[in-house]
Amino acid sequence: MTPTYTFDVFSSLDGFGSYGEGGDWGGYWGKQGPELLERRLAQYDGEQRLVLGANTYRQFVQLLSTSDQQPEVLDPWVTRMRNLPTTVVSGTVEEPLEWPDATVASGDAVDVVRRLKEQSDAPLRSHGSLSMNRALMAAGLVDRVQVTVFPVLTGRTGAEPIFAGAADFDLELLESTTLDGRTQELVYRPTLHR
Questions:
Q1: How far apart are alpha carbons 79 and 169 in whole angstroms?
Q2: Nearest-angstrom CA–CA distance, 52 and 133
Q3: Which of 80, 86, 160, 182 has the most CB atoms lying inside 10 A of its own CB?
Q4: At residue 26, does pLDDT exceed 60?
């Protein structure tokens, strides 16, 4: 059976995955309550493979390198995520990687993920990696889109609109969960709109 590929992303209510220069999105940091932390830890439990694009991999490495000054960066689920077997899809990142169990797969992300889905029994999950996951969605390789919507608007500082430039999709809602009374987790099955 082909493993499930989940595109997992954090979002502001207005659809941004990060903030621009001088911005302070504050989406996750400071808003991660105990229910969210427990849920994230459970979602990253068990056998699975993490798939990251080069930019997200570099951002994660940079963020985690500051963990001695910002211990909240190393939530238990982040630690678990970092220790999953990981494939970094990139033509520019070189080994050795600053990630415990990571390898680089060069080439087109669509080809790499198609190959991973053919060769792996473990579910595949990608956190962030926006442009890579938009391409994978267009190719029909994303089985689930998991959007965690934090109670923030980033109208002035928002950068990287999550679905900007993506194809049109119909979304079937599979799950909807409210965490800590303020954060929404929405899980959809995407189908290319015809």
A1: 33
A2: 9
A3: 86
A4: no
**189 φ/ψ angles, rounded to the nearest 5 degrees:** -105, 115
Tokens of 176: 């909807």
pTM as predicted: 0.92
Query: Cβ distance 126 to 132 under 8 Å?
Result: yes
Place of tokens 């940079």: 62
Any idea what DSSP says for residue 158?
E
Q: How far apart are CA 149 and CA 172, in angstroms?
A: 17
**Which DSSP symbol is given to 71?**
G
Residues 47-89: pLDDT tens digits? 999 999 999 999 888 877 766 666 666 788 888 999 999 999 9
Q: What six digits make up the tokens of 126? A: 């990608």
In terms of Cβ atoms closer than 10 Å to its own Cβ (0-12, 13-18, 19+), residue 31 is middle
Domain boundaries, the chain: 5-19+27-192
